[in-house]
Amino acid sequence: MFDLLKQIDAFVWGPAMIALLLGSHIFFTFRTGFIQRKLPLAIKLSVAKDPDAPGDISQFGALATALAATIGTGSIVGVATAVLAGGPGAVFWMWLTGIFGMATKYAETYAAVKYRVRDHNGCMLGGAMYIWQRAFSRDADGKRDTVEGKAPWWARVGAVAFASFAAIACIGTGSAVQASAMTGIITANAPVPPWIVGVVIVVLVSAVIFGGVGAISKVCEKVVPFMAAAYALGCVVILAVNGPYVIDAVVLILECAFTAKAAFGGAVGSGIMMALQFGCARGLFSNESGLGSAPIVASAAATRNPARQALVAMTGTFWSTVVICALTGIVLVSTMLANPSIEASIAENPAVYSGAMLASEAFAMIPYVGTPILVLGMVSFSYTTILGWSYYGNRCITYLFGRYAIRPYQVVYVAVAFLGAIGVGDFVWTVSDIGNALMAIPNIIVILLLSAMIARETRHYIYEGNLDEPDTDPIPRVEGK
């Protein structure tokens, strides 16, 4: 059964999925008029407040929560896995997916904020499931109707499919895998039994997620900027230590991205196509553009119109992939150039050598600061990822089963975190990885169907100078949710 799941996992994350996501990134880049050029404005908006706008949390709180879920093990181990399997050139393709992925993140967030709803308490609900539910609803006269329940059957199928796959993915990607990563890095550097680490994770996670999106966003607002800045600073220190090899590392990354140059004696990577495949796959996974996860929390942000929060959301892809993943990649490649013994280790154990092993060995080569930076990055990134994905699962379960299903889901979520900590995570990880791919399909389809609307309104709000204009469309209340 597990072997079958692994084959399914390899299939759904194969060339077709990469083509779908990367193709969407390029399509929306042109459809939105190269929205990436508005990055300076987007960064400025991300730290601005919009107190009179409807929403539950600040724009920065929504961004911090999305970043908490995005900057996880993929930012370190995922990059190392890409370098190990695709060679140094994979770093370039990861970086490129981040550049183009900003447009998809903008588009999916725009649609999510535009079609968000309110629950029985007036709190915001949003995501691809509500886009499907509202965007295609019609009344008896054929006019658009935003009342839930009037959507055609195929739109309801799309909504349920996204929410179901996302709820499954949250349990593994957000809980088991991250807890396993935290436990692995801690026990490798301290004599602590895994079950104790698991108990601590359960306590720390439970103390936050049972408080709702407000509590999660407050923690993420404080932790995420600190952890990202600390990790980035640590990488800069390592690059300073590797000073003589940094330029060579960048040149090697570019050469291996476009030529069949053998890196590190051929021990790492297998040519241009492998660099492209693994770089794109890991890049797409690291920034989550197109998966539909970040728009769920972006829908809760206090923003006067969808364009403002969409701009803020796209900076998440910039920070997670264009900055953090690129830094990690250059650190790894420059450290491998400076320490040929790492290549020898890979050559001795090619079948069992993993991305985690490569990251650990590379960072350990830097005296005094290397290992602490890796430990700090892995633990803090994994913890905040657990918090961020818990909210995604919360909203998906609410859509499927109503508010009374939230508490049981949260209990299951923290229980799975404990199982992941003690080593029962491989099966859950594979299932959730499949869920990750499958949730992207209905999300990409719906924003492609709405691309004309997104392009038209983007032109109005951003390119015609109406970014301060409030959205006059009412936000409907969904009773019973």
Automatic annotation (TrEMBL):
Query: Transmembrane ranges?
Result: 12-30, 60-84, 90-107, 153-175, 195-216, 223-243, 249-276, 318-342, 362-390, 411-431, 437-455
GO cellular component, as recorded: plasma membrane
Q: Which domain of life is it from?
A: Bacteria
* One GO MF term attached to the UniProt entry: amino acid:sodium symporter activity
Subcellular location as annotated: Cell membrane
Keywords carried by this UniProt record: Cell membrane, Membrane, Symport, Transmembrane, Transmembrane helix, Transport
Q: What is its main location?
A: membrane
| Membrane-protein topology | Multi-pass membrane protein
Q: Does the keyword DNA damage apply?
A: no
Q: Which family does it belong to?
A: Belongs to the alanine or glycine:cation symporter (AGCS) (TC 2.A.25) family.
Q: What name goes with this protein?
A: Amino acid carrier protein
